[in-house]
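Appendix B. Extra example for self-study. Work through it before the problem class; the solution is given directly after the inputs so you can check yourself.
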Amino acid sequence: MRGGVETELTVKRILVADSEMGVRESLTDFFVGLGYWVDGARNAQDVLDKAATSDYAVILIDCRLSGNRGLEVLTELSALYPDISVIMLSAESSLEIVTAALRKGAFDFVIKPIDVGQLTEIMQRAWEHHELTKMYQDMCAQVR
Amino acid sequence: MKTHSILVVDDELLIRDLLYDFFHGQGWEIAVAENGEKALEVLRSRKIDLVLTDIKMPQMDGLELTSEMRESYPDIPVVLMTGFPSVDSAVMALRYKATDYITKPFNINQLYKVVEAKVKENEG
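Solution. C-alpha coordinates for the complete assembly:
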Protein backbone atom coordinates (compact mmCIF):
# COMPACT_ATOMS: atom_id res chain seq x y z
CA MET A 1 0.00 0.00 0.00
CA ARG A 2 1.31 3.49 -0.85
CA GLY A 3 2.24 5.51 2.23
CA GLY A 4 2.23 2.40 4.42
CA VAL A 5 4.16 1.64 7.60
CA GLU A 6 7.64 3.16 7.63
CA THR A 7 10.51 0.94 8.60
CA GLU A 8 13.63 2.16 10.37
CA LEU A 9 15.78 1.13 7.45
CA THR A 10 14.71 3.08 4.36
CA VAL A 11 14.20 0.77 1.41
CA LYS A 12 15.13 2.29 -1.94
CA ARG A 13 12.25 0.82 -3.92
CA ILE A 14 12.32 1.17 -7.69
CA LEU A 15 10.37 -0.26 -10.64
CA VAL A 16 11.90 -1.22 -14.00
CA ALA A 17 9.36 -1.21 -16.84
CA ASP A 18 10.51 -2.66 -20.13
CA SER A 19 8.77 -5.13 -22.43
CA GLU A 20 12.10 -6.91 -23.03
CA MET A 21 12.73 -9.44 -20.32
CA GLY A 22 16.50 -9.28 -20.88
CA VAL A 23 16.57 -5.53 -20.16
CA ARG A 24 14.37 -5.93 -17.08
CA GLU A 25 16.55 -8.70 -15.72
CA SER A 26 19.88 -7.01 -16.34
CA LEU A 27 18.73 -3.70 -14.83
CA THR A 28 17.19 -5.56 -11.89
CA ASP A 29 20.41 -7.46 -11.22
CA PHE A 30 22.44 -4.27 -11.55
CA PHE A 31 20.38 -2.18 -9.13
CA VAL A 32 19.88 -5.03 -6.64
CA GLY A 33 23.67 -5.14 -6.53
CA LEU A 34 23.66 -1.46 -5.57
CA GLY A 35 21.24 -2.08 -2.71
CA TYR A 36 17.93 -1.12 -4.32
CA TRP A 37 14.72 -3.10 -3.95
CA VAL A 38 13.74 -3.69 -7.58
CA ASP A 39 10.42 -4.82 -9.09
CA GLY A 40 9.80 -5.37 -12.79
CA ALA A 41 6.86 -4.47 -15.04
CA ARG A 42 6.37 -5.76 -18.56
CA ASN A 43 3.53 -3.55 -19.77
CA ALA A 44 1.75 -0.23 -19.13
CA GLN A 45 -1.04 -1.66 -16.98
CA ASP A 46 1.48 -3.56 -14.89
CA VAL A 47 3.29 -0.25 -14.14
CA LEU A 48 0.09 1.52 -13.09
CA ASP A 49 -1.07 -1.43 -10.97
CA LYS A 50 2.27 -1.70 -9.19
CA ALA A 51 2.59 2.08 -8.68
CA ALA A 52 -0.84 2.07 -7.04
CA THR A 53 0.16 -0.54 -4.49
CA SER A 54 3.86 0.10 -3.74
CA ASP A 55 5.83 3.14 -2.65
CA TYR A 56 8.31 3.56 -5.48
CA ALA A 57 10.87 6.33 -5.33
CA VAL A 58 11.92 5.93 -8.96
CA ILE A 59 10.37 4.25 -12.01
CA LEU A 60 12.33 3.53 -15.20
CA ILE A 61 10.10 3.28 -18.26
CA ASP A 62 11.03 2.30 -21.79
CA CYS A 63 9.28 4.62 -24.29
CA ARG A 64 8.26 1.61 -26.39
CA LEU A 65 6.46 -0.11 -23.52
CA SER A 66 3.14 -1.67 -24.63
CA GLY A 67 3.36 -0.39 -28.21
CA ASN A 68 4.95 3.02 -27.60
CA ARG A 69 2.76 3.82 -24.56
CA GLY A 70 5.71 4.78 -22.36
CA LEU A 71 5.00 8.51 -22.58
CA GLU A 72 1.31 7.93 -21.80
CA VAL A 73 2.29 6.06 -18.66
CA LEU A 74 4.60 8.95 -17.73
CA THR A 75 1.66 11.38 -18.06
CA GLU A 76 -0.50 9.23 -15.77
CA LEU A 77 2.24 8.77 -13.19
CA SER A 78 3.07 12.51 -13.14
CA ALA A 79 -0.58 13.31 -12.46
CA LEU A 80 -1.19 10.59 -9.88
CA TYR A 81 2.16 10.37 -8.07
CA PRO A 82 4.18 13.59 -8.49
CA ASP A 83 6.67 12.42 -5.84
CA ILE A 84 7.87 9.53 -8.03
CA SER A 85 10.90 10.39 -10.19
CA VAL A 86 10.37 8.86 -13.64
CA ILE A 87 13.39 8.11 -15.84
CA MET A 88 12.54 7.45 -19.48
CA LEU A 89 14.60 4.99 -21.51
CA SER A 90 14.62 5.01 -25.30
CA ALA A 91 16.43 3.21 -28.07
CA GLU A 92 15.31 5.98 -30.40
CA SER A 93 17.26 9.22 -30.35
CA SER A 94 14.43 11.55 -31.33
CA LEU A 95 13.96 15.24 -30.53
CA GLU A 96 10.17 14.84 -30.51
CA ILE A 97 10.28 12.06 -27.91
CA VAL A 98 12.71 13.94 -25.64
CA THR A 99 10.72 17.20 -25.77
CA ALA A 100 7.49 15.26 -25.10
CA ALA A 101 9.14 13.64 -22.07
CA LEU A 102 10.31 17.07 -20.87
CA ARG A 103 6.78 18.51 -21.15
CA LYS A 104 5.26 15.53 -19.35
CA GLY A 105 7.59 15.89 -16.38
CA ALA A 106 10.20 13.14 -16.78
CA PHE A 107 13.04 13.36 -14.28
CA ASP A 108 15.62 12.26 -16.84
CA PHE A 109 15.99 10.66 -20.25
CA VAL A 110 18.50 7.92 -21.08
CA ILE A 111 19.25 6.79 -24.61
CA LYS A 112 20.00 3.09 -25.12
CA PRO A 113 22.43 1.39 -25.14
CA ILE A 114 22.52 2.29 -21.46
CA ASP A 115 25.71 3.64 -19.93
CA VAL A 116 25.40 2.09 -16.45
CA GLY A 117 27.77 4.64 -14.90
CA GLN A 118 25.56 7.47 -16.13
CA LEU A 119 22.38 5.63 -15.09
CA THR A 120 23.77 5.02 -11.59
CA GLU A 121 24.45 8.73 -11.16
CA ILE A 122 20.98 9.63 -12.51
CA MET A 123 19.36 7.04 -10.20
CA GLN A 124 21.09 8.58 -7.18
CA ARG A 125 19.85 12.07 -8.13
CA ALA A 126 16.35 10.70 -8.80
CA TRP A 127 16.32 9.08 -5.37
CA GLU A 128 17.44 12.32 -3.70
CA HIS A 129 14.81 14.26 -5.64
CA HIS A 130 12.11 11.83 -4.50
CA GLU A 131 13.19 12.15 -0.86
CA LEU A 132 13.19 15.95 -1.05
CA THR A 133 9.79 16.04 -2.75
CA LYS A 134 8.34 13.69 -0.14
CA MET A 135 9.81 15.74 2.71
CA TYR A 136 8.36 18.93 1.22
CA GLN A 137 4.93 17.31 0.85
CA ASP A 138 5.04 16.06 4.45
CA MET A 139 5.96 19.54 5.73
CA CYS A 140 3.16 21.12 3.68
CA ALA A 141 0.72 18.58 5.15
CA GLN A 142 1.84 19.52 8.69
CA VAL A 143 1.18 23.25 8.23
CA ARG A 144 -2.25 22.76 6.64
CA MET B 1 -5.82 42.19 -13.12
CA LYS B 2 -2.27 41.13 -12.24
CA THR B 3 0.46 42.14 -14.66
CA HIS B 4 2.88 39.33 -15.48
CA SER B 5 6.58 39.82 -16.06
CA ILE B 6 8.85 38.02 -18.50
CA LEU B 7 12.59 38.10 -19.07
CA VAL B 8 13.66 37.51 -22.67
CA VAL B 9 17.28 36.40 -23.13
CA ASP B 10 18.72 36.32 -26.64
CA ASP B 11 21.91 37.58 -28.22
CA GLU B 12 19.99 38.53 -31.38
CA LEU B 13 18.74 42.10 -31.09
CA LEU B 14 16.00 41.44 -33.66
CA ILE B 15 14.53 38.60 -31.57
CA ARG B 16 14.74 40.68 -28.38
CA ASP B 17 12.97 43.59 -30.10
CA LEU B 18 10.33 41.36 -31.65
CA LEU B 19 9.49 39.68 -28.34
CA TYR B 20 9.67 42.98 -26.44
CA ASP B 21 7.11 44.58 -28.75
CA PHE B 22 4.88 41.52 -28.73
CA PHE B 23 4.74 40.96 -24.96
CA HIS B 24 4.53 44.69 -24.28
CA GLY B 25 1.55 44.79 -26.63
CA GLN B 26 -0.09 42.01 -24.59
CA GLY B 27 0.24 44.11 -21.43
CA TRP B 28 3.21 42.25 -19.92
CA GLU B 29 6.11 43.79 -18.08
CA ILE B 30 9.19 42.77 -20.02
CA ALA B 31 12.91 42.80 -19.37
CA VAL B 32 15.57 41.79 -21.88
CA ALA B 33 19.14 40.50 -21.63
CA GLU B 34 21.71 39.53 -24.23
CA ASN B 35 23.22 36.54 -22.42
CA GLY B 36 22.91 34.39 -19.31
CA GLU B 37 25.13 36.56 -17.13
CA LYS B 38 23.08 39.69 -17.87
CA ALA B 39 19.93 37.66 -17.25
CA LEU B 40 21.12 36.73 -13.75
CA GLU B 41 21.72 40.44 -13.04
CA VAL B 42 18.13 41.17 -14.05
CA LEU B 43 16.83 38.32 -11.89
CA ARG B 44 18.70 39.74 -8.89
CA SER B 45 17.11 43.16 -9.38
CA ARG B 46 13.42 42.50 -10.07
CA LYS B 47 10.62 39.98 -9.87
CA ILE B 48 10.23 37.82 -12.96
CA ASP B 49 7.42 35.30 -13.57
CA LEU B 50 9.05 33.42 -16.46
CA VAL B 51 12.33 33.37 -18.38
CA LEU B 52 12.29 32.83 -22.13
CA THR B 53 15.83 32.17 -23.28
CA ASP B 54 17.76 31.25 -26.38
CA ILE B 55 20.20 28.35 -25.94
CA LYS B 56 23.16 29.39 -28.05
CA MET B 57 24.62 32.63 -26.72
CA PRO B 58 28.11 33.93 -25.98
CA GLN B 59 29.45 34.02 -22.38
CA MET B 60 26.69 32.14 -20.56
CA ASP B 61 24.33 30.12 -22.78
CA GLY B 62 20.69 29.25 -22.10
CA LEU B 63 21.42 25.80 -20.66
CA GLU B 64 23.99 27.20 -18.22
CA LEU B 65 21.50 29.91 -17.25
CA THR B 66 18.80 27.26 -16.64
CA SER B 67 21.22 25.24 -14.53
CA GLU B 68 22.13 28.33 -12.45
CA MET B 69 18.47 29.23 -12.07
CA ARG B 70 17.59 25.78 -10.73
CA GLU B 71 19.93 26.58 -7.81
CA SER B 72 18.94 30.18 -7.15
CA TYR B 73 15.46 30.55 -8.63
CA PRO B 74 13.95 27.03 -8.72
CA ASP B 75 10.37 28.28 -8.88
CA ILE B 76 10.74 30.45 -11.99
CA PRO B 77 9.76 28.52 -15.15
CA VAL B 78 12.31 28.58 -17.99
CA VAL B 79 11.28 28.14 -21.62
CA LEU B 80 14.21 27.43 -23.93
CA MET B 81 14.30 28.45 -27.60
CA THR B 82 16.77 27.27 -30.18
CA GLY B 83 17.50 27.53 -33.86
CA PHE B 84 19.83 24.54 -33.56
CA PRO B 85 17.69 21.80 -31.98
CA SER B 86 19.40 18.57 -30.97
CA VAL B 87 18.58 15.52 -28.86
CA ASP B 88 21.56 16.29 -26.61
CA SER B 89 20.46 19.84 -25.81
CA ALA B 90 16.85 18.67 -25.31
CA VAL B 91 18.04 16.02 -22.83
CA MET B 92 20.07 18.67 -20.99
CA ALA B 93 17.00 20.94 -20.97
CA LEU B 94 14.96 18.12 -19.42
CA ARG B 95 17.73 17.40 -16.90
CA TYR B 96 17.88 21.06 -15.83
CA LYS B 97 14.08 21.08 -15.42
CA ALA B 98 13.32 23.52 -18.22
CA THR B 99 9.58 24.01 -18.64
CA ASP B 100 9.58 23.75 -22.42
CA TYR B 101 11.89 23.51 -25.44
CA ILE B 102 10.78 25.49 -28.50
CA THR B 103 12.48 25.39 -31.89
CA LYS B 104 13.01 28.48 -34.05
CA PRO B 105 11.46 29.71 -36.22
CA PHE B 106 8.45 29.71 -33.91
CA ASN B 107 4.88 30.83 -34.33
CA ILE B 108 4.68 33.76 -31.92
CA ASN B 109 1.02 33.13 -31.04
CA GLN B 110 1.78 29.51 -30.16
CA LEU B 111 4.79 30.64 -28.14
CA TYR B 112 2.55 33.09 -26.29
CA LYS B 113 0.07 30.32 -25.44
CA VAL B 114 2.91 28.22 -23.97
CA VAL B 115 4.26 31.14 -21.93
CA GLU B 116 0.85 32.25 -20.67
CA ALA B 117 -0.11 28.68 -19.70
CA LYS B 118 3.14 28.11 -17.80
CA VAL B 119 2.87 31.36 -15.85
CA LYS B 120 -0.73 30.62 -14.85
CA GLU B 121 0.14 27.02 -13.99
CA ASN B 122 3.02 28.24 -11.83
CA GLU B 123 0.74 30.68 -9.98
CA GLY B 124 -1.30 27.58 -9.12
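Self-check: Helices of chain A lie at 21-33, 44-53, 65-68, 70-80, 95-103, 116-143. If your reasoning did not lead you there, revisit section 3.
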